[in-house]
Design brief:
Layout (H helix, E strand, L loop, with lengths): L29 E4 L3 H10 L8 E2 L5 E6 L2 E6 L10 H4 L7 E4 L3 H10 L3 E8 L4 E7 L5 E7 L5
Parallel strand pairs: 1-4, 5-8
Antiparallel strand pairs: 2-3, 3-4, 6-7, 7-8
Length: 152
């Protein structure tokens, strides 16, 4: 692991083990519990533009949704009230997923036109990410973010 170097002006330390161009890890899938698999799958398809091949189980208990290399897995054992967004457990931890994107403005426009609940309007953060938040049909908060460091 590369210990990195401290930025003299901010004192921040960069730590990375990205020394090899051939990476073994490719992606991470967000796995969340929901009350209603069908309602969730339809929301992510119709409002957020994701797709799915099938819903597993009878009654429905699992679905994998995909868009542009981003994956969400949702599951349910049929009991209600098991979904627990982070902000419910602790109001200081709002995000349940953080999704990097190339064009925040286009995504916001798309989601807004389809009726998504925008929980936080776009804002450039001190760490040079332009972010907005969507509250999904399960109460989960999804943060969509674009790196704007090159614009500074």
């Amino acid at each position: 692991m590369n210990s990195g170097a401290a930025n003299e002006s901010t004192g921040e330390r960069t730590v990375s083990n990205e020394t090899n161009r051939e990476r073994n890890l490719s992606t991470v899938c967000v796995c969340l519990i929901v009350d209603d698999i069908v309602k969730c799958a339809e929301y992510y398809r119709d409002i957020l533009g994701f797709s799915f091949q099938r819903i597993w189980g009878e009654p429905p208990c699992f679905v994998m949704l995909h868009r542009d290399g981003v994956e969400f897995f949702f599951s349910s054992d049929g009991r209600k009230g098991l979904a627990r967004p982070n902000h419910v457990a602790n109001p200081d931890f709002t995000w349940d997923a953080y999704v990097r994107c190339r064009d925040v403005a286009a995504l916001l426009q798309e989601f807004r036109s389809k009726g998504a609940e925008i929980a936080r309007e776009p804002q450039v953060m001190p760490y040079e990410m332009k972010e907005f938040e969507v509250k999904d049909c399960n109460g989960y908060i999804l943060c969509f973010a674009q790196d704007v460091s090159a614009e500074s």
